[in-house]
Write a structure and sequence with these properties.
This protein is of the alpha+beta class. It contains 3 helices and 4 strands; from the N terminus they run βαββααβ.
Length: about 120
């Protein structure tokens, strides 16, 4: 039996006036390193930058509500519950909160917990 894992998803939007490339560069080179200082109890920390595709019905690429999906994995349920509570309540270390003002449109930040269900696909 595998050890249960708990996952928190953060859907984050860049601040107005910041290009996608500036956003990604800042997140990877500044914010990520700052966040990792507080990563005790987190097993995995992944950022998935979304690349919008054109809509086959309307054509142009539409701006999405978020620019990155940040995934945090936890093995310890108590640590997961505490981080989820603090994150959803906007309670963050002061230096993280200040840095987020440089990076995110915090009015659009959303979070969710996840239950994952994998399909076992037949080999081709």
């Amino acid at each position: 039996m595998t050890t249960p894992s708990h996952k928190l998803l953060l859907f984050l939007k860049r601040r107005p006036g910041m290009s996608l490339q500036e956003f990604r560069d800042y997140y990877e080179n500044v914010h990520r390193k700052l966040a990792e200082k507080y990563a005790s109890g987190i097993r995995r920390y992944v950022r998935r930058y979304v690349q919008p595709l054109s809509n086959p019905r309307t054509g142009p690429i539409e701006e999405m509500e978020f620019d990155v999906i940040t995934e945090l994995w936890f093995d310890d349920r108590a640590v997961f519950d505490k981080v989820a509570e603090l994150t959803s309540g906007g309670v963050l270390p002061p230096e993280i909160e200040e840095d987020e003002k440089r990076l995110f449109d915090r009015t659009k930040s959303r979070s969710a917990t996840v239950v994952e269900c994998d399909s076992e696909l037949a080999a081709p």
